[in-house]
Amino acid sequence: MTHARPLVTAISIFLISTLLVFLAVPNQAQAQENTWIQIEAHPTLNEAQTRVRAFSGAFPNVGGFRVSSGWYVISIGPFSAAAAAQELERLQQENLIPRDSYLADSRSYQQQFWPLGGTTLTQPTTTVEPTTSTELTPTEPVGQIITLPDETPGQARANENALSREEKMELQEAMQWEGFYTSAIDGSFGAGTRRAMAEYQAAMGYDTTGILTTYQRGELRAKFNEVFTNAGMENYSDPKAGISIDLPMGLVEFDGYTAPFVHFVPKGDSGVSVSLISQKGDQATLFGLYEIMQTLEIVPLTGERERKDASFILRGNNAKINSYTYAALENGTIKGFTLVWPAGDKANMNRIIGVMMTSLLSLGDTALDDFAGTDQNEQKIDLLSGLQIRQPILSRSGFYLDATGTVLTTSEFAGTCAKLTLDDLTLADVILTDPALGISILKPEKKLAPLGFATFANASPRLKSEVAVSGYSYEGALGAPTMTFGALADVRGLDGEVNTQRLDLVSLLGDAGGPVVNAGGTVIGMLRSTEVKDGRALPENVSFSTSANAILKVLADNGIASTTSSEGGALHPVDLTARASDMTVLVRCWN
Q: Where in the numbering of this chain does the Peptidoglycan binding-like domain appear (predicted)?
């Protein structure tokens, strides 16, 4: 029995030693696999969670961690140091991760936020000292996480030299975006770039070396690309429309098809919308689309217009919205898009436009069917393929004064319009207004050749004689002027105004500004807008016109030529209508 104790002791020591070795092996294995490939860094948890979900769809071993600076990083791993280096090289060569991705030790990571409930972080191992005791002493909990230092200037410069010219240009653009860089975006890191880098480092509380470390470049890049993260830029591929494009899916959502458009409406209160363009056609179709798009509310009147042989660009802006439209003809199909956003934030949206432009891809000769999404029971005159047609704020009549297209119309147009159009085709400007007479004179931006122009009566009209008004009674809805017949009730106004004529004639709002003609087709006045006298509405058959004599005096005083004639014989109603219609023009005000 006395010889058994040494044997028992030896066996105990052997078992304890074996147990210690067994317990140490997993920790050593874990310690060897604590290297990560860090691919992105974001200032907020929300941004990081959005991006890490996207990466998780491509890589099975993605982790998200908070670091000591307060930023949130996305990494792939963990690996052994050797395996991580090989994987980093492979992923970069295959363009699967950003070029500025780098290796990081897990000891620089603090709290894990992805995967949810994940525990892939390992703490630094504690060395187990050999002991002869039969009791195992538990190790003390680790109280402080060790953070690895950032790169030295030499290491930072070496990593910087590995960047491509495009990546260097992106850094310059990012520093310009942050307000630190004002020189050319050329990918050349001269004194101006170094100064900007140092200023950025100082602003962020880093050592001002003038050489951004890999981490600092990643941080700057993350800020620069924050607009894309917030917009939720994702690739959208539509086999039906034959289009692939990156869209701000965080701001818009799919709404349906109405040829030639694929509609995306605002998500929440973003105010952003997208319409993809897809149709078969040729150059004539493209040019027609160029004109049609400018009639839509989503393309405001003010803005750049550029049309080439096989593409066009439309920019529009007003007090409420901005928009950008691009369309191109290729292989018998027209593909493009319109992006609309609330007024303001032009810089950020221009960057989104840049991504949409570079990512736009036509998937062969496939295009939307001409009747895709159309509902014959839901047709509306103010809609075109599901988009609102721009409506004028004022539509009235006018008539030509000469063979070059000078127009006389109502003074309602004075000072209220961003743009004036004649027959929806020609822009015009107000060159003269007489509020007392209720008249304005318009000059077209280019010379016109109207079918007819006014010949004024050089004698006062006879009381009770037949008269007619040519005008766009329904404010352009019918596409042509209508004739309204009546009689001259008085050569003065109700209060004895000598420049006003009272008519026994039922007129509508759209008729205002139109020519009042006698039976021979000569002009005796211009119909004035409907008046309310002292708060009293007049009978519907009471209308007023500014007399020809008053109009002729204004024209003469301002050096504007006119044509006059003595009253001739009465014309056949058909001929009278033709003569009056030829001189009448639809005048519209747009804002």
A: 167-213
Per DSSP (E only), the strands in 425-541 are 426-434, 439-444, 456-457, 466-471, 482-490, 500-504, 515-518, 523-527, 532-533, 536-537
Tell me the per-residue pLDDT of 559-588, one tens digit each, with 9 for 90 and over.
999 999 987 788 999 999 999 999 999 999
pTM listed for this prediction: 0.58
pLDDT in tens, 11-66: 344 434 444 344 444 444 444 678 999 999 888 877 787 788 778 767 889 999 88
- Residues whose CB is less than 8 angstroms from the CB of residue 557 and which lie 6 or more positions away in sequence, other chains included: none
- Residues 82 and 462: their CA atoms lie apart, in Å, by 107
Could you say which of 224, 246, 275 is where a domain stops? 224
Looking up residue 461, the CATH number of its domain turns out to be: 2.40.10.120
Dihedral pair phi/psi, residue 491, rounded to 5°: -90, 5
How many structural domains does the chain have?
4
Q: What angle do CA 458, 460, 464 make, to 5 degrees?
A: 140
Q: Where are the alpha helices (DSSP H) in 80-144?
A: 81-93
Task: Examine the domain organization and report whether 195 and 86 are in the same domain.
Answer: no
| Rounded distance between C-alpha atoms, residue 60 and residue 38, angstroms | 15
Q: Is residue 318 domain-shared with residue 427, that is, in the same domain?
A: no
Q: Is 209 in the same domain as 245?
A: no
Q: Give the pair of three-digit tokens for residue 136.
A: 């195992």
If you count them, how many residues does the chain have?
591
Closest among 442, 446, 409, 402 to 425, alpha carbons compared: 446
Q: Which two tokens stand for residue 460?
A: 């006062």
**Domain residue limits at 372:** 231-384
How many angstroms separate the CA atoms of 427 and 407, rounded?
Answer: 12
